[in-house]
UniProtKB/TrEMBL annotation:
Keywords on record: Cell shape, Cell wall biogenesis/degradation, Isomerase, Peptidoglycan synthesis
TM annotation in the entry: none
Free-text function comment from the UniProt entry: Provides the (R)-glutamate required for cell wall biosynthesis.
GO molecular function, one term: glutamate racemase activity
Family stated for the protein in its record: Belongs to the aspartate/glutamate racemases family.
Protein's name in the database: Glutamate racemase
UniProt source species: Candidatus Curtissbacteria bacterium RIFOXYA1_FULL_41_14
Recorded superkingdom: Bacteria
EC number(s) per entry: 5.1.1.3
Length: 259
């Protein structure tokens, strides 16, 4: 047994969608969550800058004696996972689009991956498509502006952008939509309203929670009792707490830190 917390980080509130899935799977575990909102969006950063930010975040989380790290951000995973694994000895799990199950689910071999533009153009995602979906037609749809709109719950902007991107999905004819950004599960219902029964919508949250459970079991790191979760942001903690309350339906008190 090991009651040390699990660390997670994202550029903002999107990683909370991953945290929810892990909490449901592992209710006795404790968590330290960091939202690097001062440097949001990560998609606008160079790979070098992302590696530097991520490394500093991990060093901060290690001060809380975390036993496992989840990079709860698709963009950060694409550009920093290998780097962080080479720097730190703790188990590190990244979030990648659920492409493999999408291939199994698709009936017409047409799949759309909704992500940030940075993830869409990454070599990591290109390699993922080549490995798992070579026989499928895959549209890597970089949804410019959508992450930021969700980050600050700009409803009108969310609606406007979803109208644009869902129209592109319909034109492409995909029957499976992969949510390749951890912010996007928070608007899954809005996407479903637009696409109807034409396509299934999947994300990586449940799969990441299963991977965390397997990793903890393999290392004999399961917790025996729940300790208080802690939340940090590099921007305004009041804003983070207000938005988190809406997204999670739960009150969160966050602290501001600098990295």
């Amino acid at each position: 047994m090991n009651n040390k917390p699990i660390g997670l980080f994202d550029s903002g509130v999107g990683g909370l969608s991953i945290l929810l899935e892990i909490k449901e799977k592992l209710p006795k575990e404790s968590f330290v969550f960091l939202a690097d909102q001062a440097h949001n969006p990560y998609g606008a950063k160079s790979p070098k800058r992302l590696k530097d930010l991520s490394e500093r975040i991990v060093r901060f989380l290690l001060k809380s004696d975390i036993k496992l790290l989840v990079i709860a951000c698709n963009t950060a995973t694409c550009y920093t996972l290998a780097h962080l694994r080479s720097k730190f000895k703790i188990p590190i799990i990244g979030v990648v689009p659920a492409l493999k199950p999408a291939v199994s689910l698709s009936k017409n071999a047409r799949i759309v991956i909704m992500s940030t533009p940075a993830t869409a153009k990454s070599a990591y995602l290109k390699d993922l498509v080549l490995r798992y979906a070579e026989s499928s037609r895959v549209l890597r749809l970089g949804c410019d502006g959508l992450q930021d709109a969700i980050e600050y719950l700009k409803k009108n902007e969310i609606d406007r952008l979803l109208d644009i991107y869902v129209a592109k999905i319909e034109k492409f004819g995909a029957d499976v939509i992969v949510l390749g950004c951890t912010h996007f599960p928070f608007v899954k219902d809005e996407i479903r309203k637009r696409i109807g029964s034409k396509a299934r919508i999947i994300d990586s949250g449940a799969a990441i929670a299963r991977r965390v459970k397997v990793s903890l079991g393999k290392e004999h790191l399961y917790a025996s009792k729940k300790l208080p979760d802690r939340y940090f942001t590099t921007a305004d903690p009041k804003v983070f707490s207000q938005i988190s309350l809406i997204l999670l339906k739960d009150k969160i008190i966050a602290k501001k830190i600098n990295i």
